Amino acid sequence: MRLVVAHSRLTSRGGGERVTLELLRRLGARHEVMLWTGRFDPTATYAELAAFPRVELRSWEWLARRPNAGAVIANSFGASLLALRHPGTICYLHTLRSTYLLGGSRPDLAARRLLDRRALGRAAALVTNSAYTAAGAEQRYRRPVEVVPPGVDDAWLALPPRIGSYALYAGRLAPEKGIERLLAWSADLPLDVLIAGAGAPEYERRLRALAGPRGRFAGPLAGQALLDAYAGARFLALLPDAEEFGLAALEAMAASKPVVAFAGGGLPELVRHEQTGLLVRDAAGFADAARRLLASDELTARLGAAGREAAREYTWDRFARRIEEICEEHRIGR
């Protein structure tokens, strides 16, 4: 089957970009695949994406072009517009927190919302990463949404269990990720915080100004450097209040690290309180969780071991197989 995997903005190392890469890797082993993208910066996203055959589109071309493919897997606003011309488009909804979806009266935002609703109304199928995101998408688009959770690489599962020394945040540096909350809630604790990731320069400067002497910024990490950052952590701290899935939490669990997560969004579907991590709602709850983990190697190891066992259920092969089945169900030209 000829497939197009589409993402309109490959300029960061987020979950949507990771989903795009893993689909290309796995479906490319069995099908003829092509990457369609708009803005593409191989130095800022997963460098492996550059290895795949690629078509780069200008903004207006998402509305005008129709891929010569049996099915399209679209991730992000521009890519989803392909559903207006290609009836075999499967839209993967990585997030519902895009700026245009959050409201605003600007004409361009209103136009995007209108196009988005029409495109996803015509899509062959809608898929997302968690029950939390699915509920929001079903309310917005008034149609069923299937949950197909992302996976985790074996490299995380291969890390030797180890009791680390600091709290880790790994991911994009963006306001919705709860990093300011993490810095505020950890300020008075005997806790080093390592922040791994990149974001808009002005926002990074704001975070550095908020960080105390125990906050360290590692910049964007990949490969062994990222694995080493996880290996040295005592726990992962992930505190956004509306995280749709939390790929960093899954990777931490696979690395045998407890996750201290905000009890909101899709994170409670992944992080089980007192089983694979600790869920918190305020500064006092975070302080209690951090102190418990700092004081007890046994608790840290127990939660980490249970997290690794739970993470084994999430594989990229399983994810890709289900997306492949959906493509087969809806492909054109059968």
Topology:
Blueprint: E1 2-10, H1 15-27, E2 32-40, E3 54-56, H2 61-64, E4 71-75, H3 77-80, E5 89-93, H4 107-122, E6 125-128, H5 131-141, E7 146-147, H6 154-157, E8 166-170, H7 179-186, E9 193-196, H8 201-210, E10 215-219, H9 223-231, E11 233-238, H10 247-254, E12 259-262, H11 267-270, E13 277-280, H12 283-295, H13 297-311, H14 316-330
Parallel strand pairs: 1-2, 1-4, 2-3, 4-5, 5-6, 6-7, 8-9, 8-11, 9-10, 11-12, 12-13
Helix pairs in contact: 1-14, 7-12, 10-13
Could you explain the architecture of this structure?
The strands form two sheets. Strands 3-2-1-4-5-6-7 form a seven-stranded parallel sheet, with helices on both faces. A six-stranded parallel sheet has the order 10-9-8-11-12-13, sandwiched between helices. Helix content is 40%, strand content 19%. The chain has 14 helices and 13 strands. Helix 1 packs across helix 14 and helix 10 packs across helix 13. 45% of the residues are buried. The protein starts with a strand and ends with a helix. With 334 residues, it is α/β, with parallel strands linked by helices.
What characteristics describe this protein?
single chain, 40% helix, 19% strand, 334 residues, 6-stranded parallel sheet
* Rg, nearest Å: 20 Å
Major β-sheet profile: 7 strands, parallel
Helix % is 40-55%
Distance between the termini: 10 Å
